[in-house]
Fold ATP-utilizing enzyme of the PP-loop superfamily.
Amino acid sequence: MNELGHANEISPDLAAKRDRLLAVLGDMPGVAVAFSGGIDSTVVAQAAFLALGSRAVAVTADSASVARAELDDARALAQLIGIRHRIVRTDEFRNPAYLKNDGARCYHCKTELYTTVERLLPDLGVPVMASGANLDDLGDYRPGLAAAAEHAVRHPLQEAGFTKADVRALARYWQLPTWDKPAAPCLSSRMAPGVAVTPERTKRVEDAETFLRSLGLRECRVRYHEGDLARVEVPASEIAKFAAGPVRTELAGTLRRLGFKFVTLDLDGFRSGSLNDLVPLELKVQFKPAAPETRA
């Protein structure tokens, strides 16, 4: 199978990592890639399709925690790549431990996802599950990696030695449209630890962030705190604009109409994973990721 066309050169180091990635996946008898449509899982899906063809399938979860725009993007990307694609309903919202949102929510979400996909493997005709985790994920709080370990999920990007920068560079080389896409974690990740997750709240966040993007933002977050308080994060360079009279008034009015009682603008600006600061230390220790074995 041929690679996608490319419009830029590739460094020897990245070419070697690409080849390792294709070799890691090519050694698998077949793989189901947990495919959100984000940059990491898109690169794994593309590599899996190049290495395995019809023995690769992308599996996307659908629940109240997934923004409709992200689901549409996943469909379009799978079609562009040419990989088989299956969308599955997950029922994490029926799990009281997930709804409780005590800091381990992602563990319960990924457990639900991998359990659901695991049951589907015979029907999909593949025996292995893979994620889009890269080496940079090892330095962050990632309860989902603990769930992955319990379900024997492989992490091809980690095994091939990919950092986030490597992933973006390879995506650009392969001309994948998501090569510079901002991270888009699930809507439930916007709930501060201790704030119960509900479909109504995730929809409120989705609508609020859709409004912010309509004002021209690519990266933004609406963090949901106790008391129906929205903490809005925009890039630091945009804070003055959003604090100015007309925009501030429109922002506050729109979010209140969506159901938020208080609207604040975070003066530190956009920070990916800022709610991890509220996760109890014991959970961070419990879910500290283990370094993978990098395969030559």
Summary: The longest helix spans residues 105-124. Residues 200 and 236 are 29 Å apart (CA to CA). The chain has a mean pLDDT of 91. The longest strand covers residues 56-62.
